[in-house]
Each structure stands twice: as C-alpha cells, then as structure tokens.
C-alpha cells in the first residue's frame, strides 16, 4: 500500500496531541489507530482484532506471574532482609549504606523485575535510613532510583518479555540470560561512583557485624533470595521455561511470605491480588493498544520509511548506533517504557540487524532495556524519578539536577553494551548457541 501522508499525520499527530493532553497511553494509541483506520476506510473490526491479537500470546503468560511474585515478596518483609544481608556484605565501607542500597536493589531486581517496585520497596526504607545517618537527601534519592534500573536488566524483567513479544520469534530465556552480566556491570559501576562521591563528601562508614550476627542475617535472607535463584537457575539449566519459572516463583514467594516469614496475615493476599491485577491491567491494555498502533504503522509503511531514512543518513556503524541511542534517550524522556518498546522495536530492529550494523536482536534488546530505563529517571515522564522524589520529599528538579553523575555513569555503561557485544551475548551464546 502506498503511504498516505494524511493518514500518517492523523496517526502520529493525534497520538502526539493525546500525549500532550495527558490522555492515558493505551487510549492514546488505540484512538489514534481507530481514527487513522477510519480515514483510510479500513474496517474498525480489523483494528479491534489487532487489539485482541496483541495480548493473544503464550509468552505473555509470564508477565502476571512475575508481577504477582514481586508483589508478594514486596509485602512479605523480603526488602528488609535483603538490605540487612547487603549491609553484612559491604556496609562497613565508606559510604557503605549507598552501596548497600545498590546491592539490595540488585537482589530485589532479580525478584520483582520492576524498577518502580524496587524504588517503592527498597526506597521506602533506604532513603530515610540514609538521611538519618548523614547522607544528603538528594544523593539518597539518586542512588535509590539509579540502582532500581538494574531490575530492568537482571532477570526476570517483564519488559524483556514485552520486547520479545514485539519483535516475535525471540527466546525470552535467552534475553534473560543476556541481561545478567550487564545488570551486574551497571551495579558495579554505580557502586564505584557512589564510593568516589562518598569519599569526596565524607559520608559515614556502616557498622560491623560479628560472625554470629552475619550468619543469622544470611540464613534469614536465604529464603527470599531463593526466589531469584529459582528463576535464574531454572532458566539457565533448562529445567524451567520463563513461564514455568515465573509460576514456580509465585508458589515459592507465597510459601516464604505466609509460612516462613509470617510478617503479614494471609488475608493480605487479597490486597496483593488487587495490586497485581491493577498493574497487569495497565500493562496488558498498553500491549493490546500498541499492537493496533503497530499494525497501522506497518500498513502505512512507517517503519520502512524510518529505516530507509536512517540508512541514507550514514552507513557508518558507530554513527548509526549513536543516532539510535540518542533517539531512544530523547523518546524515553516523553514516553513510558513499555509502549516505547512496542512501538520502536519493530521500527529499529531492521536497522540494527541490517548489514550496515549487524547487531544481534538479543543484544539490541539489552541496549534498549538500559536506554529506556534511563528514561524512567528523566523528566517530564520519568516514573521512577517521580516515585523516588516523592519518597524523599524533594522536587523533581532538584533530584534530576543532582542525578547528572549517575546519568553519565549509566550512559557509559550503555555505550559499552552497545559497542561490546560480548558483554551481553557471551552467557546466552554459551547456553543456547549462536
């Protein structure tokens, strides 16, 4: 079909207008798709079928299980135990509490798979604790929200499942394993930055534990950490698929929360289910609407036009990858992560897998995850930035300004993942083959 400029203007223009007027993203995507289809004479029933097709995917079954497991563990005292365990490991260093925050986020990210959940759970305890011990409040917020982005990379990550669904035919297990090393690299980079800033600002050292205390804390936290071990080890060894590991993780999280830790009553499960369903409804509605939007873009040949445009700008691999990263960083400032994955992945994948670049779709998925997770920390739409600022009681402007060293560190890691494929591809290639 020949591209229709008016239909393209309707699709993209209306979507932009809806976003400006803060219409929910799912409605913005769906309404602009229906309007463009109506103008072109496409049956609205066909667009409705695309909405259903968007969530009619077996791989998406893992998302509700991972969300539920994260909600259960977030309610059941796991965050407090992870913080104590991290404190035992590295809390005695200068500025140790900041590094405890980062390590705890790394552990919790392997359970919840959500940067927002990580910030809400870990941040609610760590930010007041850091401020009480003499850390600046903006620094405390920045460490918390920056480290929360590890949850987008370290398995499980429901955003990786969305990416796999958006481009089709990609192993979720392979994506999970590809994010393991990059997630650790990001955590180590943030720890180095935190230590340098702690020394410069003379932040306090943490307390030391006796061997008996350390063992008691480690044993107490092991049950919660087993949730992440079940997910990662299950996929790594091939015992579970991603969906099966998510289901088993839910059962284990339920058992640990209500029968081992027993800090919340069983009746609290109804609240957990409500929160899970609310989150799931938002995620699935965005996925459904993005399918309809993507169908209209494909019909109008928008991805082909954008791909051709980028490839005509330059044939230099480095320049193309830098252009793509800059575009994603800018888009991440104005749109949330899940819809951006669903919209941009099918557009950019032909570019990065073209002979001019030759990037593996799995590596590009990891690059996209980190790139768009930075968008979660940038105004005006950065949801993690808003949550962290709210917990710390500081303005968005103050938090964003003091985030500059953390932004720079994350961009450096992003460039490493972009130009050094081995960092993300070694583990999945060892497991699944090239």
Concise structural overview:
This protein has 434 residues and is an all-alpha fold. The protein has 22 helices and no strands.
Spans where pLDDT lies below 50 across 5 or more residues: none
Query: Kindly state the mean pLDDT as a whole number?
Result: 84
Order of helices and strands: HHHHHHHHHHHHHHHHHHHHHH
Head-to-tail CA distance between termini: 36 Å
General form: globular
Outline the structure in words.
With 434 residues, this protein is an all-alpha fold. The protein has one domain. The chain contains 22 helices and no strands. Helix 5 packs across helix 12. The radius of gyration is 22 Å and the shape is globular. The model has no long low-confidence stretch (mean pLDDT 84).
Sum up the structure in keywords.
434 residues, mainly alpha, 0% strand
């Amino acid at each position: 079909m020949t591209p229709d400029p008016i239909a393209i203007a309707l699709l993209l223009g209306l979507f932009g207008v809806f976003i400006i007027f803060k219409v929910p993203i799912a409605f913005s995507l769906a309404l602009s798709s229906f309007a463009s289809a109506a103008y072109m004479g496409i049956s609205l029933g066909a667009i409705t079928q695309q909405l259903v097709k968007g969530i009619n995917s077996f791989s998406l079954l893992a998302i509700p299980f991972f969300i539920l497991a994260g909600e259960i563990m977030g309610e059941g005292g796991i965050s407090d135990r992870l913080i104590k365990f991290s404190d035992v490991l590295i809390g005695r260093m200068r500025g140790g509490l900041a590094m405890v925050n980062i390590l705890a986020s790394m552990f919790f990210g392997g359970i919840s798979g959500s940067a927002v959940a990580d910030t809400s759970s870990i941040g609610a305890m760590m930010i007041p604790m850091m401020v009480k011990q003499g850390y600046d409040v903006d620094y405390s917020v920045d460490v918390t929200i920056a480290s929360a982005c590890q949850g987008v990379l370290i398995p499980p990550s429901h955003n990786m499942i969305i990416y796999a669904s958006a481009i089709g035919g990609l192993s979720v297990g392979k994506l999970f394993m590809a994010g393991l090393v990059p997630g650790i690299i990001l955590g180590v980079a943030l720890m180095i930055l935190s230590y340098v800033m702690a020394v410069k600002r003379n932040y306090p050292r943490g307390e030391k534990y006796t061997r008996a205390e350390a063992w008691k804390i480690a044993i107490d936290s092991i049950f919660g950490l087993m949730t992440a071990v079940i997910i990662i080890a299950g996929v790594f060894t091939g015992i579970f698929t991603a969906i099966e590991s998510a289901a088993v993780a839910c059962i284990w999280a339920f058992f640990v929360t209500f029968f081992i830790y027993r800090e919340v009553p069983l009746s609290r499960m109804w609240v957990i289910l409500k929160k899970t369903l609310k989150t799931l409804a938002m995620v699935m509605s965005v996925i459904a609407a993005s399918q309809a939007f993507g169908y209209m873009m494909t019909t109008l040949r928008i991805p082909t036009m954008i791909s051709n445009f980028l490839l005509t700008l330059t044939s230099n691999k480095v320049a193309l990858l830098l252009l793509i990263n800059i575009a994603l960083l800018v888009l991440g400032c104005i749109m949330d992560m899940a819809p951006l994955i669903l919209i941009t992945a099918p557009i950019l994948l032909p570019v990065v897998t073209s002979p001019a670049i030759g990037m593996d779709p799995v590596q590009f998925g990891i690059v996209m995850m980190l790139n768009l997770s930075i968008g979660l920390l940038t105004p005006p739409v950065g949801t993690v930035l808003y949550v962290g600022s709210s917990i710390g009681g500081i303005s968005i402007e103050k938090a964003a300004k003091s985030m500059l060293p953390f932004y720079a560190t994350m961009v450096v890691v992003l460039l490493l993942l972009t130009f050094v494929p081995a960092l993300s591809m070694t583990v999945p290639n060892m497991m699944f083959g090239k």
